[in-house]
Amino acid sequence: MASGSTFLRFWLTERPRDTFLSYIPKEELPAFRLVCHDFGVRAAPLLFEDTTITFRPSTFTKPARMAALGRIGHHIQTLTFSMPHTPETFLPPLLDPVTGEEVTFIYEPYIQSTRNSATRLSNPIYGSWELTDLLVKQYSPLFHAAANVPTFIRAFQALPTLNHLKISCPDQEAGQRFRRSIVDYALISLRIAIERCKLPLLSSLSLVSIHPGAALYLNPTMGLGARPNSVKKWKQIKNLAVCMDSIPFSPYPPSDHLKLLHSYLHVFASSLRNFVFRWHGSNGLSPLSLDKEICLQDRSPGMACPRRCHLALRPLKFDKLRNMEVENIVVDASQVSSFITAHRHTIREFNFEDTHLRSGTWDQALAPLTRISGSEKWKEKAEEVMDVPLLFSPVDNEENKAQDLVVDYFNCKPRTLRPSIGAWQRAGARSRDLFWGTPEHMKRFLRTSIFSWR
Known about the structure:
By secondary structure, this protein is an alpha/beta fold. The protein has 20 helices and 9 strands. Strands 1, 2, 3, 4, 5, 6, 7, 8 and 9 form a 9-stranded parallel beta sheet that branches. Helix 9 (149-157) packs across helix 10. The relative contact order is 0.06.
């Protein structure tokens, strides 16, 4: 009885209880919730805090799933929306069943709620009854689920505490980049739902693995179904991370996707504070200086939009940017220098990972730091950053094998210089303390290590 009352006092005290729950592995939380009702209530926020949804035809249409989302939605803070490119997401041409000719399909999102059966039956979803009939017969249920905007809206209305949205659409083949797939229709519905739902805590967006064309369908200024006030919702985003399939670098790369990316990043110019961008695959152009790329400065009018294709791109300027990191890019030293100068009043840390200079040197690229600081003392703090393997408490004293492992590691691992303000600012006593620990800890380590230092 005494032990029971002790546990009850412990369980009813918020801080110890939450600390205890935080140490329970997430895969064990479902079984823990089955012990009793109160255990289920207390563990639910931790279990559903980070949720992943893999989109399927019945994800937002099955009543049981939507009812479950309504019960746990207020616990979800981080949502990962995953929809990989597969053969099922490929859309073949729409054909006339009589003549065999291709039918033109101009998509317009149907946003009106489908709860009223009379309205649903009186208005065709895809513009006309003939076209709706063709789409129902020739396209899979996954397409109709992706284009069902009202179901997306109802789903996000059940997520009032959402603060971080992750979107993952990997595995698109390079040959399909200029074709619209079912994934693109899902992204349109997803964007419209976010714009029309009250999500006051949404502040972070991560495009974990995205194809280049997604920049068009996620853009609230030029995407399908966009409204004049659509941009307002996206100005809540303060943290943006993008990992995009690379566009092969060449003197004349395809400019359409790069222009779409440039326009998409302009949406966050006034609100973004932390920005991370990485090209997945081969290296590509810097997304921060596309306005200075020769391949995007073609003054000859295009055939599609002759009045706008010859207009120069506006420079990208983030008013509140504090931290920036780009990876796997090719850039000129002058472009890096211009970016630092333009953001010198707000930026606190920038990092160039796996960055190759097309022209110039890093001294020229980082020259604005000398003008900003008034001296070249920042160069004295620059450090060469590399991964160093450490072997703690070896089971067998195989000194020769360990030394060979270290030598092979350095022979195979290329060493790269990462010009990073953050690395220079963080280098110091704090880093040494975190790395080596206390002096007593270091002495014990050296006495017992395979190197046998005394």
